[in-house]
């Protein structure tokens, strides 16, 4: 392989303390990085478009470093990464829809976010009247006795829209292809030219169940770009909010998975616990989902003695009521019959896609941003990262179970060492263009925010990458060889975000 380009790599939390500029690379260097990705040397963190450029963020798992490469694409064309490294394909298709950037040699040139109903094509690039899109063609599967089963985009119950096209032989799924983009809200366009305060509001509303995660990642990117020193108490309060959010979502997911396996009693019990977590968040931080509580420079809400008592009582109740429910799950043969060996994802696929969170850790990928790209307050806490090898629905349940236990431990540690002091540092303009990167561990996995500011401190470009970008494709692999009736169970065990993905 040709020598790798000299990227501006940073170690661990360095990129959170100072501006983080993308490294300009040549076409040949871009292709060299692509080959390194395909060979497993790096993990792709994201790929996105800008005006006249394509960017990709890379993680070196051996040295725990992060870098961003930028390739000028004045002609609107750049060498496809996805043709050699499949995780980039949907990101490239999204960049093509938004900016009109063409991934040269791409294996899949179909639109992704643009369903032909936007008033303008390429809204972030050379915008023009949208001529509409031809009928979307799902990939064909050939063979005898095959049937296509379309599901969605409208689903039963309260659920976001997404289309799933099954090809089945009898009840057995031969292939699944997803079609997403139905919840596209134009957040990339809304971010352009926005103030930092408005950007923080938009980030918090990207995916409703991850408002803390997105708020923190956005704030982190701002603070890196503008060299903002965040008060220690604010870091601890952010950590408390993040673990409360993790608790609520994991408890809800465990119950929902059991419900999809026809064990409704578990969902009832987990729903009670989840509701208690949300009420505790309301009492402690003034909002059930802690929306707009994390802001650039710190936090907008303090925790008083009464709120601290509420969180301690919550941890005590979860520790008391959760273990018997775990035992019930683990000793219900009819439930385990549905979850064990169902929806398995191989360790190799998880590694290649860089899937984070419970999806990655359930298949042996031992990665957690809180530990591997350490940031305050986790750099001062004891954190054990649970890992399973089986990669099935049951393993994804057990990762959540262990993370519930870890969140209780982390909340207790932070409450026991909660310093006094300021909550927020004023964010001042730099007077020159700046760039920054935010990376935090949301409940689904690592959330990335790349931020580019102009000289006036307004947002020039903000790219947010949900963990689901690298998890949704693995759901297609997980369901193959299973029966269609097990899809809701597999889908819920992934619980990928539609809204966070579609932006």
Per-chain topology:
Elements: E1 10-11, E2 23-25, H1 27-38, E3 43-50, E4 53-60, E5 65-72, E6 77-79, H2 89-99, E7 102-104, E8 120-121, E9 128-129, E10 147-151, E11 163-169, E12 172-179, H3 187-191, H4 196-204, H5 211-226, H6 232-260, H7 264-285, E13 294-295, E14 298-299, H8 305-330, H9 333-339, H10 347-353, H11 357-361, H12 369-372, H13 393-416, E15 434-441, E16 446-453, E17 459-465, H14 472-479, H15 487-494, H16 499-502
Parallel strand pairs: 2-5, 6-7
Antiparallel strand pairs: 1-5, 3-4, 4-5, 8-9, 10-11, 11-12, 13-14, 15-16, 16-17
Helix pairs in contact: 4-5, 5-6, 6-7, 6-13, 6-15, 7-8, 8-13, 14-15
Number of DSSP E strands: 17
The chain-level structural class is alpha+beta
Low-confidence stretches: none
CATH superfamily of the largest domain: Cytochrome-c3 Hydrogenase, chain B
Fraction of helical residues: 25-40%
CATH architecture of the largest domain, by name, is Orthogonal Bundle
Instruction: Supply the number of structural domains.
Output: 2
What's the CATH topology label of the largest domain? Cytochrome-c3 Hydrogenase, chain B
What is the name of the CATH class of the largest domain? Mainly Alpha
Strand content: 15-25%
**Separate helix tally:** 16
The average pLDDT is 95
Major beta-sheet overview: 5 strands, mixed
Overall outline: globular
Distance, first to last CA: 36 Å
Describe this structure in words.
It is a single chain. By secondary structure, this protein is an alpha+beta fold. The protein folds into 2 domains: 10-123, NADH:ubiquinone oxidoreductase Nqo5 subunit (Beta Polymerase, domain 2, 2-Layer Sandwich), CATH 3.30.460; 207-465, Orthogonal Bundle (Cytochrome-c3 Hydrogenase, chain B), CATH 1.10.645.10. Helices cover 39% and strands 17% of the residues. It has helices at 27-38, 89-99, 187-191, 196-204, 211-226, 232-260, 264-285, 305-330, 333-339, 347-353, 357-361, 369-372, 393-416, 472-479, 487-494, 499-502, and strands at 10-11, 23-25, 43-50, 53-60, 65-72, 77-79, 102-104, 120-121, 128-129, 147-151, 163-169, 172-179, 294-295, 298-299, 434-441, 446-453, 459-465. Strands 1, 2, 3, 4 and 5 form a 5-stranded mixed beta sheet that branches. The protein has a 3-stranded antiparallel beta sheet with strand order 10-11-12. Strands 15-16-17 form a 3-stranded antiparallel beta sheet. The longest helix has 29 residues, at 232-260. The model has no long low-confidence stretch (mean pLDDT 95).
